[in-house]
Amino acid sequence: MARCGVCGRRAPLTTSSLGLCVGCIRGAPADLEVRIAKVHARSRQFFHLPQEAPRGPSGIRCDLCVRQCLIPPGEVGYCAVRQNIGGRLRGGSPKQGNLSWYYDPLPTNCVADWVCPAGTGAGHPRWAYRDGPEYGYKNLAVFYQACSFNCLGCQNWHYREVSRSGPGVSAAELAGQVDARTACICFFGGDPSPQLPHSLATSMLARRRAPGRVLRVCWETNGAMHPRLLRRAMRIALESGGCIKFDLKAWNDGVHRALTGCSNRRTLENFALAAEMARSRPDPPAVVVSTLLVPGYVDVEEVAPLARFIASFDPGIPYSLLAFHPQLSLHDLPVTSIQHAERALAAAKEAGLTRIHLGNRHLLGEPYELERRSRIAGVGGQGSGSRGWSA
Ligand code: SF4
Ligand code: SF4
Ligand SMILES: [Zn+2]
């Protein structure tokens, strides 16, 4: 339980790493910008990552993502994977991927498995090998070891220890791992944005080596890349039967900045662009959305407007709500409660979305203290009923 540095209230769902309750963050985001930036800078120090995006006047501009770093000679960008070496930008190019990869037997626990061809056979025979889950096939899972955000509760934070480890795998080498049993490639991380040229080159090489057969290409991303790169990724996903999985972390920009160290503006604009492009191939869905239900911060006030925003493009866009597990700087928050998940699912349904799903449900926990108290007082009707997990 931490005290909010603005209103002074102690609350069990206020993390000590921010020292700010969600109400105060929503109330005065501009006043808290410097304070929030300091929290993120400190958390990055631990991993020897740049504390902020470099703005060196003599630097080279990188525009792969929203950070728009100006990287001075000999230094690295915010993501730590792009470097200015001798006046040229290195890292993230087709020759130099900082990544790890593995084969994942299908159907896998991908954020879109409940709607995609691999998990359901959607689009068979054009986009899937089987008219149901693709047993006997595999996914080439590519984990890019750098990110353009700094999520305080990152669920995959170990990549931060190796973001600076230098180039590893070329696009040609990686594309060579696609064999006859590989039905899809998934680029995730970290985030693929700082290395998008690498994943785009890999996709094109891999698809060229597999003419006339199913090979879907998907990305899972925070969505903050340059829009020209998103367009290229979207075209490949559309042509291959794949999808782009957007992680929309919060609707309120202050809450988004507090949790990720970055505004959500570029992500929401990019989502709008992808959702428009996705209209040309509604099935299997070419865009899928997920939101992590961070206790105390990503509540119904975030989920409801996010769901309305998604539904404004197409109510059939699949939306997956994910249970949170305490990690990293958010280690003092509990797991998402069942009641919290039920309220979020109901809000998404209320917004008009028709394909809603709850992921990581095995992580769901007991009611939060406030929920327990209101239940005892007999006012906890919201979310305590027996709604299903999917709608
Ligand atoms: S990578 Fe794409 S096709 Fe493969 S399991 Fe994930 S969403 Fe489905
Ligand atoms: S990819 Fe983004 S974070 Fe990395 S150097 Fe380029 S602009 Fe900066
Ligand atoms: Zn407060």
Extended strand count? 14
The largest sheet, given as strand count, sense and whether it forms a barrel, is:
8 strands, mixed
Which H/E pattern describes the elements?
EEHHEEEEEHEHEHEHEHHEHEHEH
Uncertain residue ranges: 379-391
Mean pLDDT figure: 93
Rounded to the nearest angstrom, the distance between the terminal CA atoms is 34 Å
Structure, briefly:
This protein is 29% helix and 16% strand. By secondary structure, it is an alpha/beta fold.
What report would you give on this structure?
This protein has about 400 residues and is an alpha/beta fold. The chain contains eleven helices and 14 strands. Mean pLDDT is about 95; it is low at about 380-390.
Please write out the topology.
Blueprint: E1 2-3, E2 10-11, H1 22-27, H2 33-45, E3 60-61, E4 70-71, E5 83-85, E6 88-90, E7 99-105, H3 117-120, E8 138-144, H4 171-175, E9 182-189, H5 196-209, E10 216-221, H6 227-240, E11 244-247, H7 253-260, H8 265-278, E12 287-293, H9 300-313, E13 319-323, H10 338-350, E14 356-359, H11 369-376
Parallel strand pairs: 8-9, 9-10, 10-11, 11-12, 12-13, 13-14
Antiparallel strand pairs: 1-2, 3-4, 5-6, 7-8
Helix pairs in contact: 2-7, 5-6, 6-8, 9-10
The protein binds iron/sulfur cluster (2 copies) and zinc ion.
